[in-house]
Write a structure and sequence with these properties.
Blueprint: E1 33-36, H1 42-53, E2 57-62, H2 66-78, E3 82-87, H3 93-106, E4 112-115, H4 136-142, H5 144-163, E5 166-173, H6 184-204, E6 209-216, H7 230-239, H8 248-259, E7 270-273
Parallel strand pairs: 1-2, 1-4, 2-3, 4-5, 5-6, 6-7
Helix pairs in contact: 1-2, 1-8, 3-5, 4-6
Length: about 280
């Protein structure tokens, strides 16, 4: 069942932004419904707040951290936004279907899906498993992120098609192109999103659904990046043209670009948001 969902007067099926009357202003995502997975903390929370800041009603998905998800909702509402928390394991297809159905019954169909949920992982350059010690089970655990993206995409696409289109954005990593530290299982699983997303973009394009990817760099600071040593942080920052590490808000703004009408003719694309560290 939905947790914390409430009725809203927004029309989430209006995919095309209407021009506001003279003297009025309208946020670019007004009337849209966004589902952000793994949104109770870090990058997911920043993405949820970015989308809400432009008028989208946001479903803040979480797995365990109900209190943190509630704090994200409170921050959005305190700024006049519309947000609701929903606990669901995205690797459980039935739970995802229930979440999407409950959202549709309350707010309307999901127009924007952000695949951000990540199996538990720590960017620990000292304690990481090297090639000699990594096991297939480690890869399978990280591939849970792709499984979650599959379940969520399958659940929301029918509503997007019925509504005339939609946006799917997945969060990747610049380690795919520049493995500063060899996080074998994590980077390999994220690499799988490239093929998944581009196939999805090709198939869903005729239905006006765009599918894009954003690869972040080392984000300062999230729970996952907390174990990263100061030495590695300094190396990455010094090697980055903008001379700093990324922040969750940087990813949130990049997602907003792909979620908005500005990128309506962009699909199947993979861009890095890392201050220029990786220039494909």
């Amino acid at each position: 069942m939905a947790r914390g969902l409430a009725a809203s007067g927004a029309d989430p099926l209006n995919l095309i932004r209407s021009a506001p009357a003279e003297g009025e202003s309208m946020s670019i995502l007004e009337g849209k419904v966004a589902l952000v997975t793994g949104a109770s903390r870090g990058v997911g929370a920043a993405v949820a707040e970015s989308l809400a800041g432009e008028g989208a009603a946001v479903v803040v998905n979480y797995l365990k951290n109900e209190a943190f998800a509630g704090e994200v909702v409170d921050r959005i509402r305190s700024r006049g936004g519309d947000a609701f928390a929903y606990g669901a394991d995205v690797t459980d297809a039935s739970s995802v279907r229930e979440m999407v159905q409950a959202t549709a019954e309350t707010l309307g169909s999901v127009n924007i899906l952000i695949n951000n949920a990540l199996p538990d992982y720590k960017f620990d350059p000292v304690g990481r498993k090297d090639f000699a010690s990594i096991r297939w089970e480690d890869y399978l655990q990280q591939l849970g992120a792709l499984e979650g993206a599959l379940h969520c995409s399958q659940a929301v696409v029918p509503g997007m098609i019925e509504g005339g289109g939609g946006r799917i954005v997945s969060i990747l990593t610049n380690l795919i192109n520049n493995p500063v530290v060899a996080y074998h299982d994590y980077t390999t699983a994220k690499s799988a999103f490239l093929g998944f997303s581009r196939n999805l973009a090709s198939e869903l394009g005729p239905s006006n659904i765009t599918v894009n990817m954003i690869a972040g760099g080392l984000i300062d600071e999230t729970d996952a990046s907390a174990p990263t040593t100061e030495e590695v942080r300094n190396i990455v920052a010094a090697s980055t043209p903008l001379r700093r590490l990324g922040k969750p808000e940087d990813i949130g703004r990049a997602v907003l670009m792909f979620a908005s009408p500005w990128s309506g003719f962009v699909t199947g694309q993979y861009i890095t948001c890392d201050g220029g560290l990786v220039m494909p």
